[in-house]
């Protein structure tokens, strides 16, 4: 029997276009509060130590339902679509999106 994960994590691997790192920071100051306005959504931004124009945006969904609500917002909310369009305009075209289920608790439970 496969257990359903309680936490889903989205990794958005990206690099800024030349000279727009500051613009990305300013954009995210506006965007992150909107992203996190849905219950159960938390955003982190990680910058690569060796390549400071490379980032991983981590979006943690506390539940699958929070993930599903955000997916619906991405598809149907005009403000979200406008934010995503601005975000893409700041980034190099090689954006990679990866979705993970956090299975840490299931592993811990089985090993105890």
Radius of gyration: 16 Å
Elements, N to C (H/E): EHEEHHEH
Mean of residue pLDDT?
90
The stretches of 5 or more residues where confidence is low (pLDDT under 50) are none
Number of strands: 4
Helices, by number, come to: 4
Question: What fraction strand?
Answer: 25-35%
Helix-and-strand structural type: alpha+beta
Distance between the termini: 19 Å
The side-by-side strand order for the widest beta sheet comes to: 2-3-1-4
Give an overview of the whole structure.
This protein has 112 residues and is an alpha+beta fold. It is built from 4 helices and 4 strands, in the order E-H-E-E-H-H-E-H. Helix 2 (64-76) packs across helix 3 (78-89). The longest helix is centred in the N-terminal third of the chain and has 15 residues, at 21-35. It is globular. 9% of the residues are buried.
